[in-house]
Predict the 3D structure of the following.
Amino acid sequence: MFYQKEIEILKKKGLFRERKIYQKYLIDLASNDYLGLSKISEPFESTILQLQQTGEFSPKASMLVNGYHKIHQEFETYIAELHQFESAITVGSGFLANFSLIESLVRNGDEIFMDSEYHASGVIATRVLKDKQVHIFRHNSISDLEKMLKISKAKRKIIAVEGIYSMSGDTLKKEFFDIADKYQAILIVDEAHSFGVIGDSLLGVFDFYNIKPQNNHIKMGTLGKAIGSYGAYILASKEIITFLENRAKPIIYSTAPSLFETLLSHFTIKYIVKNRTILKKMIQERKHILESELKIRKDGLIFPILVLNPIRVIEIKTDLEKKGFLIGAIRPPTVKQSILRIILNADINIDNLKKFLKILKLQKDIRILF
């Protein structure tokens, strides 16, 4: 066998992973379906109806050949205007969007400064760059980043951060926008886990801090989390979007994003905008319960609980499943130390949430992360 030895080592260390179909009766505290929109039929039905009227169901080719469709164009126009950016482009996935940005924007003589907790898609993209072009700063540390920026002789400086970090649940500090301006750097903000979750209009961290997008700002977001679809988008100045069209390999050489998923995203975002008041209320009610019980304060909906032993974290996850609750058990190398990852989806029944928290607090070997 080619890899059996490596597989057995993973099992012994408690790091083995496998796909699994979970029972539908489980109360979901593991998925990124932050607003519970994967179960809302209205956007889905509107999508089916419009696709039938359009008479085309697949993109057929890459965006630069013949795959760019009016559905893509209308979605891009809508989302750019919604977020007050000049331009937008749809991408096949959040992974591809991050790879597109980092692989293409960092040219000869440029340097990128990336948060140590940035998503794996961004980290992997840096591997196509020269080592001297890549700088990793301490998580959410303004001072560490500034030390690096001060001594940099780069032609262009690019900073990569997240609106809300996927494992720690930490919110991006507002000062990162200021430091990007101070050093005339391009600022990439991955809003995968902040769109639909924070901000007066639930539009993410720009909305949360009331920041008007500038020419040096890039916002990337996925369509597969709060939006309940699949794919991604990049928002930026017309100049940067045009450059990506011409240089970003995942955009140039991939089949254009799905028409169905793009259209579904368009209708779902409209649904979020229309219902943002009630959605915000649902989020706040459930956050208040969790925060008062666990004494964790987060802006978003990701609540990590430290469990040092990777084998033990799986045992706790399994025990919670037996009691009717599904929760994420995240282990190295995704994180440095194993965690239980609670996702406080806005549609979870309040009584079920209270029951879950009582059961959770009885578990041994957990450490609440403040």
Q: What stands out?
A: The chain has a mean pLDDT of 93. The chain has 15 helices and twelve strands. The chain has two domains: 4-30+276-368, 41-274. The first strand starts at residue 27 and ends at 29.
